Amino acid sequence: MAEKKVVSIEDRIPQLKQLRKKKANRRFITYLTLILLLILVIVYLQSPLSHIYSVNVENNRVVDTEEIIELSELSRDQSFWSIDQEAVVEKIENHQEISDVTVNRSWYNQVTISVEEYSRVGYVKSSNLFKPILENGKVLDDTELKVPKGDAPVLYGFSEQEPLTRLTQQLAELDSAVVQLISEIYWEPEDTNKDQIRMFTTDGHEVIASIHNFKDKMKLYPSIAQQVTSDMEGILYIDVGAYFQPYNSNDEVELEASEEE
Amino acid sequence: MTNLNYKNVMSFLIISIFSLIFLFLIGRFAYIQITGEVQSVDLLDYAEKFRNTSSVLEAERGEIYDQTGMVLAGNKTVYNMYAVLSEEYSQNSSVDLHVKDIQKTASSLAPIIGMEEQQIIDILEEGKEEGSFQVEFGRFGNGLSKEQKEEIEELDLTGIYFEQDTERYYPNGAFASHVIGFTEDRLNEDKTKYETVGAYGIEQMYDEHLGGKDGFIRSQRDKYGFKLLNADEHVQSPEHGHDVFLTIDQKIQTFLEDTMTTVQEEYNPKRMVAIVMNPKTGEVLAMSNRPSFDPNTRDEIENWYNDAISTPFEPGSTMKIFTLSAAIEEGVYNGDATFESGRWRINENRSYISDHNNGEGWGEITYNQAVQHSSNVGFAKILWEQLKPEKYLEYISAFQLDQPTEIDLEGERVGQITYTYPRDQINTAIGQGSTFTPIQIMKGATALANGGKMMKPYITSRISDINGNKTLYKAEPEVVGEPISEDTANQVKDILETVITSEDGTGGPFKLDNFTSFGKTGTAQIPDPSGGYKTGVGEYVYSFIGMAPKDDPKLMMYVAVEEPEVEYSYYGSQTTSYIYKTVMENSLHYLEIEPDQSNEDTIEPIKLNQLYDRNTDTVVNELEEQGFNVTVLGNGDQIVDSLPKENESVYPNKRIILETNGELTMPDLTNWTLRDVFSLVELVDMELDFMGEGFVTKQNISAGSSISDESKLVVELSSKSDSNEEDDEESENEEIEEGEEVEGEQ
To answer: Is B351 labeled as catalytic in the residue annotation?
Structure first.
């Protein structure tokens, strides 16, 4: 048996001592960092830094940005982290004119609300104010505007609800590019045609049409109107067939509407 | 002695005389016996004729049909009237069988057959005086319809009889007259009877097929006309004529005839030629000339030539199709290269070649533009500098413009190619100098429709027997050459399409509403008989050749109008474009070809591209190029907002309001609609007051003044009819009343 190397405990104590010291140090630092971090978090959460810095609203045209922010109930003293996205979406969607909402956090303190509005298919005049009509047929009684916006035609003279409903339905179904061309629509029922309407269009024509075939005829309108040159002034009839009657004349000019084929 | 002598001499003389007489008689008999002829009349035949009676069983002439089976030339039963005058005819009858009361007969017949009463009386009186058995009434009494015959029969006139006959008739009247032709009644070979033979056009060309062969019944009778017992009786049934089917389509031909007649009445041109062809097969679907004639009456036939195939003339610029094709096929054509148009000459010793606008030209233009403008200088340079005249001559041969098309019609003629001197060569390339027939040009142009393959034109589709059981002839489309490659054909089509669609193009008036097309106009000078070319107003041959639809041409049409009476020379193409467009549009619709283009130029909404943060001028230019009506607010150099917004789809007849980053200014709102005003107010965010309806007439802020969200705009609107009312109150009121009446009737 070889002689065992024996180190006395006395010799080893300083080493152990040092080791123990090291360990304690490390633990201390860990705890300290942790505590510091927690403090930082508390400080952040308590400071305005964690609050919503700004709310951006996108894609709205008819509903005011402030109104949407108000609806979202997001405020600047609210914590950025306490936003319940679903709840916000729900709240905003309650607005009659908004069809779809998405809420996104951006950066560390900004919120972007992107909305899709029901497009307005028209404005009806009641007393001296204008009420928007949405593509879903709803008349917004609460929203009364002194001056309509340029996003939809103004409808006049609809003393009855039924023709108005039929017209707005068709306006909603029509390609928005076509609706853009209509400025004003007047309901002017005749004995022979209760559906008769008169329109002014943004390309400068006065047009007589009929509600019952409004959509189908209006689809062709851009092409029909193109055949009327700008030097011709008169009324464009698209109620039955398609023809143009210059003012002060009884001559009719047949126009082609052959896209129907 | 003398007595004896005398007696002997006498008897010898007598014997001799009688012997001679007998000899002569025997000789004559022997001669007749051997030769069977007396005074060159064959006695056998004579006897046969005397004994045999035969009656003709007439063969029915074949009919001419169009492609769809409509009759173009048919037969109808007519009646020839005659009057029996001889009193003997009534001898054994209880009622009168001859004309008794000449006055009454004449007065009742006159209105029905359209002959002067006195004339009828003259004919009848004269016949009676001469003791004629019967008389006829010439063209008035011949060819009466069944209705006329029945009307006369109802009059119960004595001595008036009818003989049934068939007559050729052409139900459409003046209709492809030079093609179909007509028949004539001619005495047959043995001059015993008139028969109907083709005298012109298809009638003449296929006379053997159409005519058929008469049959007969032959029997033997005695002198008194009684049938001999046990006699032979021959019955030879007639062979009816064959039916000829043409490639002509009655509908398309009618479209063509009608429009040509309209042009004839309105512009009174000297001559017109038009052909419609199926360029895929070479079938001629319609062919017509003016002046024309009605084959039923054949009155006043001014022109005996089927000009479409028989009259070569200087075609003018339509010839440039072949020059262009040749240059592209040879790979020497560069459509984007430019040259100076106007006037040009080969060198100082040669005369100038001038463009058709009095040599003014259009400045420096590309060769593609040269095609659109139909620049003579451009094509002269293509020929002289790029293609070289010798090469072009090869292409004239390849397109077979130097030989007849061999269309199955008679009377085709070939023009004269003048190609000796440089000037001739250049002239040929631009369509002057050398002459070609319309059908030659059409044949050459079929190559464009068939990927370079050239079709032989034909007009007879088939010939069958009268029951349609047996087809004796059937035409097949025939490729007769491949002068250019498919690729070249497509390139030529593309360039020729721009002749019609481009703003510079000479073919603008020929644009079809519902179909894409391509083609080439031509305005050819007419050689003046006294030398040089005619220079008067409208004294040109206006022509056009075109095909549609462009990608897969179903119809090709050539039309040429010579010397229409127009106010200005450049109005001449009104005639050709009217004929071309009317016939092509109607025919393509009739053939149920799918329209590949909408007549309204299909106005489609355009999606607005990025507008914001871009340079104002660039955006405005872009939008205006797309056809938008653009209003710019302010003078900033960047666009910040707009209505309609970017990315929206908008029709080009919509106004687009652009907001720039500069100070905003008020636009002139005259004629704006309310909605545009709303948009403006929305963009600027100002206040608005408005009154009236329709279009803006007044604005409180004058155009050009600056505006901001603090401005307040007031506008007044009125409909245009209101303003017209003010101008012309009386007539407007009338109109409203009338308008109401009309509505009341509905």
So the answer is: no
